[in-house]
Amino acid sequence: MVEWVVIVYDKPGSDRSACRPQHLAGIPPLVEAGKIVHAGAIYKDVVDGKPANFAGSHLTIVADSKDEVVELLKNDVFAKNDIWDVDNALIYPFGCAVRKEKQ
């Protein structure tokens, strides 16, 4: 198995808010299954010291191949509802040098 770093942008004009609860509910089972190491939103701006305006998502996914990563992305509610631009996702094999638990 290989870790893959993924950046998948939201499509222009898309609104993830309606699908976000379902998307977030789907992450823990993938973490428990060892498929997702970490995941979170990326943003366009910082406003008043806080991230603002969704740009997309960043994930580290464990899979045997890039095709398997793409399939995992396509099965997410964000892809199924035309929010994520999976066809243009940045997907690279990743060699982690250091990992610190979120505080």
Q: Which helices and strands, and how do they pair?
A:
Blueprint: E1 2-9, H1 20-32, E2 36-47, E3 50-63, H2 66-74, H3 77-80, E4 90-94
Antiparallel strand pairs: 1-3, 1-4, 2-3
InterPro entries: Dimeric_a/b-barrel, Sec-metab_biosynth-assoc, YCII
Organism: Kluyveromyces lactis (strain ATCC 8585 / CBS 2359 / DSM 70799 / NBRC 1267 / NRRL Y-1140 / WM37)
Domain YCII-related: 3-84
Structure commentary:
The chain is of the alpha+beta class and 103 residues long. It has a single domain, classed as Dimeric alpha+beta barrel (Alpha-Beta Plaits), CATH 3.30.70.1060. It contains three helices and four strands; from the N terminus they run E-H-E-E-H-H-E. It has a four-stranded antiparallel β-sheet, covered by helices on one side. A hairpin with a 2-residue loop joins strand 2 (36-47) and strand 3 (50-63). It is globular and about 35 Å long.
Notable characteristics:
103 residues; Alpha-Beta Plaits; four-stranded antiparallel sheet; 38% strand; YCII
